[in-house]
Amino acid sequence: MTVAVVFLIMVAPITVHMPFSGHSFKGGQATDDDGLSFIADDTEDGPSSSDTVDVNIPPPRSNSLTGLTMTIDFSYIDRNGLCTIPCAGALVMLTMIGIEGKEDVAISYTDYEGRAVFHGLTNGTYVANIFTKDEGYVQVVGPEGQLYSWSTEPVRASSDVIVTLSIDDDSRAAWSSFTSVRSGAAWLKDNVDWERKMVTIVWPTEGLAHCHGDEIHLPGPMDFSSDAWVPKVVLHEYGHAVHYALRGDSFPDYEGPEKHYIDSETNARFAFLEGWAEFFSAAAMGDPTFGGSCIEMTMFADSLSSNGDYGDWDGNEVEGAVANVLWDIFDGISEDDHPLYLPSAKGDQVDRRLQDLWEIMVSERPEEMMDIWRAWDNKTSSLVDIFRYARFDVDLVRPSNPTGFVSSHKVMASSKDSTISIALIGAEDDSSMPIWYSIIWDDRPDTEPDDIVDICSDSLTSPSLPPGIWYLHVRSIDYSGNVANGTLHLGPFLIEEGATDISDSDGHSGLNGTLLMDILILIGTIMMAVILIIIVMKMVRRPQEGDVGMTDCQRSSINIHPYTHRYGPRDIYSIDHQIGCDENFCPYCGKKDLHGLFCAYCGKRLR
User: Fold this and answer.
1) Full-prediction pTM beyond 0.85?
2) Domain definitions of the chain by residue range
3) Longest dimension (CA), the chain
């Protein structure tokens, strides 16, 4: 059998306009200065990703081995015009051209080499059309909602035939964004066995790259400078789309600045949204670097650029610090991955814990990075290190259980009141945050509560209890999720037959009046003392940035803006320039030594 080989080069695409329903979006936009942005909603009108584009696909033809076979190889020229890349996973429709018109006769999807094969064809003239849509992960449409498509020249087939279509026009950037999202979807499937529904990329659009949840908008122009050509940008926005799907098709409430940088301080929710997207794009590509920046570096809350403030920011509010910790959880052990201010540290010892991270993302729907810290079971010293290196104020100190209580019921005394009111006294924690409690009411003297918070107050009232012997079991839990050792067991309390809920005039069971008043006076006194201490501390002026001279490294870096597209080279931030090279700088944090007994910034003893 003779095999005919036909090579066709398309100079301009044939764009097919398909029916599409519009949808309105409402809300606000936060954008990066680097072209990366996040949008929960928007006021723009555009194609809705809730409905995929209808291309009127005919039923697939049976894959008969009789008749003719047509093979089509689809590829596109890369951004620099140096090589060809397969159009892998894309929808291909085969159309037969006859005397009476055109008929769509079969569909297929290209394989990883960009090849579609149709068997069992009759003699005739055929055209193959390829669309920027795959079987379920991504479709790329224009501003009006049409899929991009390209067509071969008509091919007269009287024997088996091979057709090659290489796409080289400016709109081929649609294939680059298509390929980037498919690579992100494949990474998710391979690493956590998870898939999200189809994402629609709208390109080109106005403004900066942003994500609506199921829809990603990429700005023009339609040439080599478009963000559609940049996998890191596309995967950053796809990371937002993944986050949206993980939360049940919603973004958390947040407020963010119009311009933000990978090393700038915003707030915990916004930093987590952007830090997650930065991490996702790096993980999907297997490369933590981009434009000279590297999220493996533990430095973003210690920025030397004009976005930093000499290292006393909270990592939980810095998107680069969030991305850094997420990357350290994901990657393997790295002895060299330690803070620049602490070269003697042992480095990142957390080894490939992506599955644990993913389970928290799915089950807990964290809204900030510290939510992941609180939800993580069995916090090891290695986990503590990567959080602390990135300037997260993590707390490992367990709170204490209450040391006493005041009750509306006496222990071992029967009562006709079926509800018991308790005020807990004496629980303590290292932090200034409130203490919460896990509790259980039952008839056993030694029950151990779990580590899930049940009440957020020192006072509680039981439900109406049936007659019998009752105990209350209490375990303290602090804001960081640390659980007290042991349990406080209160009781037994005796509820008589025929007991009812005896309430005061406000409808609440009350504590003994004199004891309650003593407790309130004690609490009021403590609060006044705390407020006075805070006022005094506020009056003490801490050193300001302007009080401190800069190192050569800091002075040379002051105009470098370390957002994703460009960043100072790594050797600018050499350890020698930060610490150990000048006795006028603290050997622990690298900041100016103000010649006190202790460092004014990190508190370490200097003399």
Assistant:
1) no
2) 4-28+45-173, 177-389, 404-526
3) 105
